[in-house]
Design goal:
This protein has 152 residues and is an alpha+beta fold. It has one domain: Sandwich (Jelly Rolls). 18% of the residues lie in helices and 50% in strands. Strands 1, 2, 3, 4, 5, 6, 7, 8, 9, 10, 11 and 12 form a twelve-stranded mixed β-sheet that branches. It starts with a helix and ends in a 7-residue tail after the last strand. The relative contact order is 0.13.
Length: 152
């Protein structure tokens, strides 16, 4: 009897941990060209196709480098050379009607194509830059920032 209870408890815990791990995935890297990395906390990880991304990850591209990302809600991001983009917030929970996407472009170029977060809650999507904030009013945009202002 104890063995059955222990097995049941372990299965419930494993399911809960697996579900939480899936929730922390904001998206994944679809394509990498050149020298690109993901800064996760204090660790810089070389970006690879298929790599999972998390909230708070920073995507960094070198000169002549590009990275393409798709977020779990279908949002597509293309980040150009010498860029730094932070995924500050990613909330996609349609069952509870909770949505949020906050990106911080410190430098470089970002092309954005909206996904379901923007469809369900356009006001929940923002892109911050050193010179202002972009609120979503459509489905696509491209923004470019000079790199002479230094890293952010």
């Amino acid at each position: 009897m104890k063995r059955i209870i222990l097995t049941t408890v372990l299965l419930v815990l494993a399911t809960a941990i697996g579900a939480r791990a899936a929730d922390t995935v904001a998206g994944s890297v679809k394509a990498v060209q050149g020298s690109c990395s993901v800064q996760r906390g204090t660790e810089a990880i070389p970006a690879t196709e298929g790599m999972h991304l998390q909230e708070q990850d920073a995507l960094i591209t070198g000169p002549d480098s590009h990275i393409a990302v798709i977020l779990r809600d279908g949002t597509r991001l293309s980040i150009g050379p010498s860029s730094k983009l932070n995924i500050v917030q990613f909330v996609y929970n349609p069952g509870e009607k909770k949505f949020g996407l906050l990106l911080d472009l410190g430098r470089g170029v970002l092309a954005y194509v909206s996904g379901k977060i923007a469809s369900f809650s356009p006001e929940a999507v923002r892109v911050q830059t050193p010179v202002g904030s972009i609120g979503l009013r459509g489905t696509k945009f491209v923004v470019g920032l000079g790199i002479s202002g230094g890293a952010r």
